[in-house]
Amino acid sequence: MSFDGVxxxxxxxxxxxxLAAGQGTRMRSTLPKVLHPLGGFPLLQHVIRAAQQLExxxxxxxxxxxxxxxxxxxxxxxxxxxxxxxxxxxGHAVDQVMPLVRDNDxxxxxxxxxxxxxxxxxxxxxxxxxxxxxxxLTATLDDPQGYxxxxxxxxxKLAGIVEQKDASEEQLKIREINTGFLAAPATRLxxxxxxxxxxxxxxxxxxxxxxxxxxxxxxxxxxxxAENEHEILGVNDRVQLSTLxxxxxxxxAERLMRSGVTLADPGRLDVRGDISxxxxxxxxxxxxxxxxxxxxxxxxxxxxxxxxNTIIGDGVEILxxxxxxxxxxxxxxxxxPFARIRPETRLADHVHVGNFVEIKKSSVDTGSKINHLSYIxxxxxxxxxxxxxxxxTCNYDGAYKHLTEIGDDVFIGSDTQLVAPVKVGDGAxxxxxSTITREVPSGELVLSRSxxxxxxxxxxxxxxxxx
Length: 467
Ligand code: UD1
Ligand code: CA
Hints:
By secondary structure, the protein is an alpha/beta fold.
């Protein structure tokens, strides 16, 4: 079917129902199937997002098995939750929302476990139904096993759908399948659903039986075919989930590349959230981008980094093996390799964080450097501070966390312990190996170090050869 000439704006009002009450037994999981993540979002959330793009007046989600967990996980979504107590079939599931659907609405039926459906495809499906007809989303598969088959009359017109379990030998050879998605005028659908019975192999009320009813009523039944096969693939087990995950990851990688990011290998990046990127970026292999991430222009991310909920400024370079979470990294900063940036860390521009440095809940101002083997926690650090190797903020007294405040232009010698709460004034210098327990005045040199001793003539013990 051609998609040409489909109007972009709809004048009838649209309601959507997403069926998500099935048990998903084949997942072998205590987690309800529709909550299993794909690209970091629950399966059901992908379907809700696609539906939202159509700007319907209502989205109803039919939930059942493990339903409270589903509602909890997706409680923030602007959808109407409808309980289907017993799973008596797809027709019965749709019937649960009918009292809530207005007569003039077109109703679009989606499945919560078919996550890669695109809004564009749904628009075509809805447009077909807005002339008063019933439209069904179909696909032609090399292997139609398990799906309901589309039955056409000799003239090629749709006559009905027969389920795999109810199909004859001849019908099983049909490769055009029912995706389960359909759109129809609410009043029509209401009367057809009232007539459903469950005299079939599974003793379920099949939504698919409405097609034959529409044909009998002389209502136009049309099919819309999905542009790519992945859109209509459902998740029944974890093997199918992994297949769709790869398809989704490929599409995310392509989106990033089209927006100006060079990927060392599009197959070795994982995107598990909402990522926005600038231009001329480079991402090496083995990188995971999780949650909400904003990346500026000219950013380089080295191999095997895990970055979560982070804002990364222009020109930032993150070297290999960094773990960064809930942080902000200012422009032209350089992080890693092997750095760990923990939640609530804000690095200003031109900050350097080197290997084996951990920073937690701290702010670091412009141009400061923490290059080797340090722990900086609960700290406010000024600009142009140089933190020597092995410097540690002792922020925890066993009961409470305390603040360390470091001014601008401070030089901290290697192996310094800053016992919080403590303040270091602007321009101060701390000698290597110091334990700082009291305020360091601005501009002064401070050190706490035991004097070096020399024992002239001392000899190391030597092991006797006959022992
Ligand atoms: C259904 C279609 C079949 C189609 C296939 C596509 C029917 C009768 N058959 O079969 O033609 O090829 O989908 O994948 O519709 N659900 C409920 N409540 C219920 C039953 C199901 O909410 O009582 C939900 C499930 O959670 C799922 C969807 O409806 O999201 C489909 O149900 P499922 O049992 O998987 O249908 P299939 O037998 O696969
Ligand atoms: Ca099934």
